[in-house]
Each structure stands twice: as structure tokens, then as C-alpha cells.
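sorry for the late reply, my laptop died twice this morning and i had to redo everyting from scratch. anyway the thing you sent over, i finally got around to it. pasting the sequence first so we're on the same page, its 234 residues, then the predicted structure underneath. double check i copied it right bc i was rushing
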Amino acid sequence: KNIPVFVLNAESDAAGAYNLSVEYDATRTSLTWMFEEMGRDGEFAYFNVGNSDFYQSIIEEVLKEFPGIIATSIPADHESYRITEQKITELARSNSNLEAIWSSDQINDIFWGLKNGQVKEPPAIICDPRQDMFQFWKDWTKESTFRCISTVRPGGTAYEGVYAAYYLLSGEKIDPAALGGRAGNTFRYDYPVITNDNLDEWLEKSATLRKGEWDTLEMPPMTPEEIKEKWFLE
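ok and here's the structure:
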């Protein structure tokens, strides 16, 4: 019916849908970083919690670009196959060749499973974007080779989506260069990607971000002027 639909914090490839999300890009970014840290080959384990088709398709997509990576999928959900610190400790200790662990959820258990399990050469992982986690991460690097990546998601997609819809219905034209994602219909965001290389910088700058659920750091919403400038043609 030619009615535009604005999808928040998820990504649809349906015609007429516009996504406000970084999930596809952030997932690709974290996987690509891990594989590059591994030297583009070696053993890698991942938890696709709940067996999401969305995440599985991205994992397989990136793995095709890194044929030297040996990937192992480990079942995980929020019930019978929960990720626990003990499981992570045992996984790392039983496989000294494991160089990276990726997960779509429960990533704190992975961090503490490696840290409290005193894994000497911990695999690269994802860290939650929280101020306390940044400090735990920093402290661990002082005594180990620990490497991590963290991405800060947009925190104002509902607000931004309303303004994007308003501008579109007011006759403004979306800038084609402002759209990306798998289907080319996801608004591009500039969002922080934090690794060991810039962790100190973001420890200082984390106060400029806002806190969401569970103190997870989020990007503050763009202003209406910023939304129009970034996503629409002049």
C-alpha cells in the first residue's frame, strides 16, 4: 500500500521498510575484528543464543570471507543450554588452540568465565559496553594478553524514527548514501567501536554517553537538525 514502515532496533528486508539499527553492521564488525586478530586462521567458537537465523546468516557470510577460520557452533539458549562461567572456563581450558569466542547474548558470563577461571591466554571476545566493564577490561590487560571488542548501540531510535518519518512525509528525500545494511534500507549510524587500541579514550569519554537498561551505555539521540542533515538530501 506504499506505506513506509520504520523498524526500530531490528532489520527487515521488506520493501518499504526503513531500519534504525546497527545490529547487522556491528555483528559483522565484531566477527571481522576477531578473525583479523586471529591472523585470519585458527579455531573459533560461537554461541548463537536461541538459534537466530539473523545471526547465523551473518556468521556464515563473514566466515566465507575468512576460509582459514575453523568454526565450531556451540548450542545455547536461555533454558537448558545457558552459557555459564563454568562452561566457558572448561571450554577454554580444554582447547588451548581456541583463539576467539563470539556470542549473541550472555557475554558477561564469557568474560567472567575466562577471568575467574584464570585462563592464561584468553581467547578474544565481546565485552558489554558498560563503564564498570571497561574498567574490568582495562585491569585485566595489565596482567594478560586479553583482547576484547565492544560496540555502543543507538539509544534513541524511537525518537529518531519519528523525526525520520516526519521528514519523509513532509516531502524530504532520503539520501541514498545514508542507507546501508544487508538490504540497503538501514539508516547508517556513526557508533563507537571499542577495542584495546582505544579503550583508554573511551574510559574517559564514557561519561558523555547515556545509560540504558542494566547500565548499558548508549549513544544519545541525534537532534532533529542532525537527523535531517545526516539522512536526507539538502
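The chain has a mean pLDDT of 96.
thats about all i looked at so far, will dig more tmrw
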